[in-house]
Amino acid sequence: MIEITNLTKSFGEKVVLNSFNATFKQGVTCIMGESGIGKTTLVNLILGLVKPDSGEIKGTEGRVVSCVFQENRLIEQLSAVKNVMLVCDKSKKAEVETLLCQMGLEDSLCCPVSTLSGGMKRRVAIVRAIINPADIYIFDEPFKELDDARKDKVIEIIKQHTQSAVTIFITHDVNDAKAMGGKIIKMK
Within 10 A of 58 (CB to CB), how many other CB atoms are there? Predict the structure, then answer.
């Protein structure tokens, strides 16, 4: 469980989070809200990439955390398989290939990711995040650039791989939040 108490973060004069409180338990919690409301800042605070001005985040210490950022953060000249293999043991190559195929990338396993569409790159980034077990998964707008047919399959795969973890899912789309299930937190 992650417990956030009175979390405040400003950038210059702009207060992004002001005494924010939330609890994230095992299962899915979807965070929704308008652009610029602080969803990604919250994720960066949980990940320890940004320091809070005040407040407390408990429950992340010593935990394995995996994340899909808003940007794919792939190495463009490497293949889909090689991008995922950067985060796992060589013995997992067959599992990586299987998961990429389940994501509909069977014809693109060895292609440099620079040649893939935005939606294909997104699926590679998702596989990279879920290939290894984690205690906490964070998905920041994971379905951007995915068509609805692919999205349904990807959601099912994510659910299979994250069911025993704390999963924080950021989206603007209420249908995506409903499909992921779990609790919804609307930031204002």
Answer: 11
> pLDDT under 70 in the chain at which residues?
none
Instruction: Find the helix or strand (DSSP H, E) in which 175 lies.
Output: helix 174-180
What residues form DSSP beta bridges with 184? 30
Assign residue 57 a region (left: φ > 0; alpha: ψ between -120 and 50; beta: otherwise): beta
Q: CA-to-CA distance for 98 and 76, rounded, in angstroms?
A: 21
Q: How far is CA 167 from the centre of its chain?
A: 8
Classify burial at 27, counting beta carbons within 10 Å of its beta carbon; exposed 0-12, middle 13-18, buried 19 or more: middle
> What pLDDT score was predicted for residue 57?
96
126-151 pLDDT tens trace: 999 999 999 999 999 998 888 888 89
